[in-house]
Structures are given as C-alpha cells and as structure tokens.
Amino acid sequence: MNGHNKLISRRLSTAAFSFSFAYLLSFLFEGQVMYSLLEMHGVSASAYILAAMIAHFMGLLTCGPFVRSQAEAKSMMLGGMGLCFAATIPFFFAPSSLWLGGLVISGYFSGCAVAAWGFFLSAYTPKKERIKSCGDVLIYSNLLMIAINVVAMNCSPFIGLSCALFSLGIGIAFIWMLPAGQENEQNRALKNKTHGGVKNPLILLCLFVFIITINSGLMYQVINPAFEHLTGLVSWYWAVPYIVALAVMRNLPMNAKRSSILYVGMAMMIGAFISFMLLGRNTSDYLIVDMLMLGACGIFDLFWWSILGDMLDYSDNPAQTFGLGLSANVCGVLCGDILGMSVTSIGLPNAEIAVIALTVVCITLVMLPPLNHQLVLLLKSHTYLVAYDNMSQSQQTDIVRHIKTLEPLTVREQEVLQLILSGKSNREIAGALCISESTVKTHARNIFSKYDVGSRAELISTLLKNQTVV
Fold first, then answer.
1. How many of the other CB atoms lie within 10 Å of CB of 348?
2. How far apart are CA 127 and CA 107, in angstroms?
3. What are residue 414's phi and psi, to 5 degrees?
4. What's the whole-number mean pLDDT along residues 64-91?
5. Region 238-254: what's the mean pLDDT?
6. CA distance 255 to 235
7. Cβ contacts of residue 199 below 8 Å, gap of 6+?
8. Residues 340-350: pLDDT tens digits?
9. How far is Cα 465 from Cα 470, in angstroms, rounded to an integer?
C-alpha cells in the first residue's frame, strides 16, 4: 500500500472510531443520554450502568482470540456496532427487559469492536504518529459527545438518543469503507521477532491504568452528582478541560518526556479532590474542580492510549493487546463506580472521600518509576532486535564478542544467546537445539548472570548501549 492510500485509510480509521466512540461516550459508557432517559422514566441507574460496563469490560477482554487478522477485525467492528444499533432501539420505548438485555448485548459487542480497532491503528498509523491518532480519536469523539449531551440535557433525551445513533450509523459507514487488507510479511516478521517482550510492561501498564481510573469512577458517582443542578453548564463544559489537555499532550514535541507530565496530572488530580472538599457547589467552584479533574484525566488517558498504540508493534494480535489495556480502564472505572455508589449510599463526608481518592493517587505515584523503566527497556529491546536482524552473521558475532562477561560463555550458552537475540522464545529455542525448555531457562539464567543482568530486556539493552562501539 502506498503512502497516499495509507493516509486515506488512516483518516477513515480515525473517523470510523471517532463517530462510533461518540455513541459509546454519550450513551453506553455512563453517557448523559443514558442518564437522561433513566431519569425521565424514574428508573434507578445503578443496575443498568453496571450491566453495560461489565459487558463492555468482557468484550474488551475476550475479543482477542476471535480476531486474528485485519479482515476479521473489520467484520467484528461492523457486526459489533451493527448489533449496538439494533440493541439501542428499545430505548425509544418504555422501560422493559429489552433495556437491560440491549445494554448487555451492546456493551459486550462494542467492547469487541473497540478492541478490534487495534488492528487498524497498528496497520495505518506509523508508530511515531500513534499518539496523534489516539489524540485525534479522543478529541473528535468527545466533541461529538458534547454536542449530543447538549441536545439530550437541554432539548429531549429522545433527540439525544437519535443523535447518538446517527453518530453510530456514520461510524458504521466509515468502517464499511475501511480496507480489510492483510498485514505485510515485513510487519508480521517483526512482530514474531518481538513476541513476548510486551508481557511484563503490559501487565504493569494495565495495573497502573486500573488504579488511576478508579478516581474516574469516583468522579462519575460523587463529583458529577454534586453539581447536577448546573445542568446547562455541565452539559457542554464537562469535557472541555479534557479536550484541551488532550490537545496539549497531542502536540508536544516527540522528544518531550511525557512520563514527567504525568506528575503534573497527579498534582491536578490531588488539587481536584482537595478543591471538591474545601469549595462550595456554585458555578465558579465547578469550573475549578472540573478543570483540574478532567485536565488530569486527559493527560493520563492520552499517555496510556499512546503507550498501548506503541505496544501494538510488539504483539502478534493487536486486538488482544489493545483490548487488554482498555479493559483495565473500564475495570478501574467500574470499581470506582461501585466505590462511589457505596460512599454515597452511606453518606460519607466529602473529606473522607477525598482521602480515599488521594490514597489512590499516592499508589499510582509509587508505580510511575518502575512503569517508565519497563517501557524504556521494551523500546530499547525492540530497537536492538530490529537492528540486529539487519546485520550480517559476522557483525552479529562481533557485537556479542565485544561485550565483556563476568565469566566466558560455554558453546551451548553462545548458541542460546544467538537465538535469544533472534527473538526466539524459550520454547522455540528448545525446539531448535533439541533440548528441554527447562534446560533453556537454565542456560538463560547463566547468561544473565554472566552479563550481570536480570532479564532478556536488560540483556538486549546492554548490547544496544555497546552497539556503537563495534
């Protein structure tokens, strides 16, 4: 695919996801259209919101095994969003069992569709541009959400629902226009070569996302209801600081240290909950609290969305990696919702709620340094493996020979090292050398010990540092 066609596909992909995601934000994922409809009919929101979020979480988590190619990803997105459209129709009528069933169906299949988009982000957006694509999707979808919310809260929930479905319909049309080409051999070989290297950083990133987004759930259930009397302002201003923060993060220079900006986000979130505790509930107070809280959310969201985008290069299944990362976000919001509902039902004072939120922030502060370390090692490992693969056999031998070890490697350890640097897993190395996997692990531990490193990532990073010496 040439550059022009790839750019068109990238724009189609961004448009498809933006319009579809606007439907999720305005209706399914604790959207104001949903709240307005439930309030109009005098129905308690808790069961409906929790059902939709749990189903969405399961869709994100389980999509990977069913979507293994770009063609399958397109089919999943079309089918999933089509089912969402059909399952939303009952909300134009009086509450019934179809409401709850529709939310479960649309929640699950929208989760699958969102995870499947990882294939298109990986295929059509260069790695260095993925933070911009993620930023564009989040900005455009939130702008559309604001427009839909204004209609739902100030005109009619049914008109708002119609707008949400119209946005979803446009998204489906753009999905239909997306090419369903196969991955080229070069990209597939690259992913095979780096398979497995993403596991530990992805687990740490998911844990970080889960913990920090607990505060988002608290925001939905505690902060937002406290200002619900400011209906006109909340309907349009709520996501504005979020969009501004996304725009700032999106346009930072490529060499900017985005991990350092997370500490700014932490400070803003701390300020938001302290302000919520100390200030009143008038317009100026809302502007301050929302600016701090949603600005922090914008910083965090684009950080981990873009990191997930980068990680797609290290996975042989972008839908699975993307789905796992986003499922951690939904799980965090879900837990925050449950926590928020609990503290609200028992009438916990605002000061104690703020203490809970600040505790969550402190935990994430502790996690930031090891998270950044793991991500840096992942990047270096990937960069070295690509460079190593392009070297001749003599160059590969020279670069290993120039690195001093605490003890000389045995002949078998040298063979294992060469296969490690070729991106082979322990099982693949065992098959190539006709030895057991446990024997490979023993050789690998000996190699790590002789290079004075603790893992494959550190070993490859050490070799990368010395690459310019050869």
1. 15
2. 29
3. -65, -40
4. 93
5. 89
6. 36
7. none
8. 777 777 776 76
9. 11
Specify the 3-state DSSP secondary structure of 316: coil
348, two tokens? 């916990």
Q: Which among 429, 419, 420 has a CA at the least distance from the CA of 460? A: 420
CB within 8 Å of 371: residues ≥ 6 apart:
201, 204, 205, 208, 259
Fill in the amino acid letter for 445: R
> What is the distance between the alpha carbons of residues 88 and 84, in angstroms, rounded to a whole number?
6
Whether the predicted pLDDT of 240 surpasses 70:
yes
Mean pLDDT in the chain? 82
What is the pLDDT averaged over residues 61-82?
92
Cα–Cα distances (Å) from 107 to 88, 113, 262, in that order, read: 10, 10, 30
Cα-Cα-Cα-Cα dihedral sign, residues 135, 136, 137, 140? positive
d(C-alpha 150, C-alpha 238), whole Å: 11
**456, 197 contact by CB (below 8 A):** yes
How far apart, in whole angstroms, are the C-alpha atoms of residue 150 and residue 310?
35
- The Cα 306–Cα 127 span in angstroms is 9
CA distance 56 to 444: 40
pLDDT tens-place string over residues 195-226: 445 666 778 778 878 887 887 777 777 777 78
Q: State the pLDDT at residue 311.
A: 80
pLDDT at 309: 84
Res 103 pLDDT > 60: yes
Backbone CA torsion sign across 455, 461, 462, 463: positive
Asked if the model's pLDDT at residue 281 lies above 90, the reply is: no
The DSSP 8-state label assigned to residue 407 in this structure reads S
DSSP, collapsed to helix, strand or coil, labels residue 139 as helix
Q: How far is the C-alpha of 126 from the C-alpha of 21, rounded, in Å?
A: 22
Contact 250, 131 (CB under 8 A): yes
pLDDT > 80? residue 370: no
Mean pLDDT of 133-138: 94
CB 178 within 8 A of CB 9: yes
Q: Which domains does the chain have, with CATH numbers?
A: 3-384 (1.20.1250.20), 392-469 (3.40.50.2300)
**pLDDT tens-digit map of 372-399:** 666 655 555 544 454 555 555 666 566 5
Which of 66, 60, 22, 132 minimizes the C-alpha distance to 324?
60
The residue assigned the tokens 């490690």 is 420
Give dist(CA 332, CA 357) in Å, integer: 13
Provide the CA 320 distance to its chain's centre, in angstroms: 11
